[in-house]
Amino acid sequence: MPPGSRAARLSRRAPVLGHLTIDGRPMLSESGSSTPPGTIPVTLTVNGQERQLQVAPWTTLLDLLREELDLTGTKKGCDHGQCGACTVIVDGKRINSCLALAVQKDGAKVTTIEGLSSGDLHPVQAAFVEHDAFQCGYCTPGQIMSAVALIEEGRARSREEIREHMSGNICRCGAYSNIVDAVEDVLKNKASSFREAAE
Ligand code: FES
Ligand code: FES
Q1: Each residue of 104-119: pLDDT tens digit?
Q2: Fewer CB within 10 Å, N or C, the chain?
Q3: Domains of the chain by residue range
Q4: All residues at 6 or more sequence positions from 40 whose CB lies less than 8 Å from its CB, including other chains
Q5: Given ligand 2 and candidates 86, 87, 134, 181, which is best to mutate, with the most ligand atoms within 8 Å of its CB?
Q6: What is the pTM (predicted TM-score) of this model?
Q7: How far apart are CA 77 and CA 83, in angstroms?
């Protein structure tokens, strides 16, 4: 396959084949009998919607989300588990989606930044806006997803613990202080709403 050819360009999308075979040729039909060779069926619930896909075994969850499902809110930074830009929530836990193969997550529930709220901003999103907790915004979806999961984990009660438990989310703009302000704000509001509910 000559580099730069149409087939070569199409094969770059081969990791997940909803409508193309691995070498770029059209599928025979949309039925199960036309399953592209070398791919594996994977079912994911992404932002509440079940998605049935045929994926190549080497496809990362990050590439699946961005390249095939057009959920580009999840960012690719290092692609090596070093920056946290690709953080999503899988079955309630935050993970670096660049380090997870899609086939490993068969049957999982995945939440991306696009699925965090369905109308009003999620409290963490609102707090990031309120505290101006970003500059370029590239790390922001990952920071927010990480913060949402961290708050659910209940492991952070102080600024130091927020910093520690979000240390895998790198911000090259250095907006850390405002990010911690935002997360701390949500934690305090959550604690006070729990107190009010108990009274
Ligand atoms: S892109 Fe996944 S950790 Fe950097
Ligand atoms: S806001 Fe630019 S990298 Fe974090």
Answers
A1: 999 999 999 999 998 8
A2: C
A3: 6-112, 123-198
A4: 54, 55, 56, 57, 103
A5: 134
A6: 0.82
A7: 6
DSSP string, 7-64: HHHHHTTTTB-SSB-TTSPBPS-SSGGGPPTT-EEEEEEETTEEEEEEE-TT-BHHHI
| Segment 73-92, tens digit of pLDDT | 999 999 999 999 999 999 99
Identify the CATH number of the domain defined by range 6-112.
Answer: 3.10.20.30
Residue 35: its pLDDT value, please? 77
Rounded CA-CA distance 115/189 in Å is 22
Residue in 65, 86, 112, 113 to alter for ligand 1 test, most ligand atoms within 8 A of Cβ? 86
- Which ligand has an atom closest to residue 78 CA? 1
CATH topology agreement for domains 6-112 and 123-198:
no
CB of 79 closer than 6 A to ligand 1? yes
